[in-house]
Amino acid sequence: MLSVSCKASIKAVIYLGSQLPKGQRADIKTIAISIHENEHTVGKILQRLVKAKIINSLKGPTGGFFISETQKKLPLMSVVRAIDGNDVFIQCGLGFERCSDSHPCPFHKHYKKVRGYFKEMSESNTIEDLCNDLTAGNAFLSKV
């Protein structure tokens, strides 16, 4: 459903949100290590997130990537749209170009429900909501 880049973006934004109370900025390498993603991939997604105004960056020796309180209040949907666009909410679960209620793939009726739930969850949960689970120790960004 989500691209690898979108999943990495969500993890990066949650990581940056968890650093906000500490007032810390993070460099690409630190973020990549913290979310267990390739440094090159993280660099590209961070640029896209800055361009979409979901996160901020400052250059220089005290620079890095960070998120503001206002950005932390953005819905998860803003990250998904910035990276994967709206197609993720209408695409076929099996990848067919032509799939609809009138011309369904074998997976359509089940996947349509999952897409709808994911869209609702992305609209109703903020970056902060996801960060709170992380900082409370109820969720993790690392592999088990």
Topology summary:
Elements: H1 4-19, H2 28-35, H3 39-51, E1 56-58, E2 64-66, H4 69-72, H5 76-84, H6 108-124, H7 127-135
Describe what you observe in this structure.
With 144 residues, this protein is mainly alpha-helical. The chain has a single domain (4-135), classed as Winged helix-like DNA-binding domain superfamily/Winged helix DNA-binding domain (Arc Repressor Mutant, subunit A, Orthogonal Bundle), CATH 1.10.10.10. Helices cover 53% and strands 4% of the residues. The chain contains 7 helices and 2 strands, in the order H-H-H-E-E-H-H-H-H. The protein has helices at residues 4-19, 28-35, 39-51, 69-72, 76-84, 108-124, 127-135; strands at residues 56-58, 64-66. The protein has a two-stranded antiparallel sheet with strand order 1-2. A hairpin with a 5-residue loop joins strand 1 (56-58) and strand 2. Helix 1 (4-19) crosses helix 2, helix 1 runs antiparallel to helix 5 and helix 1 (4-19) crosses helix 7 (127-135). The two termini are 22 Å apart. The mean pLDDT is 93.
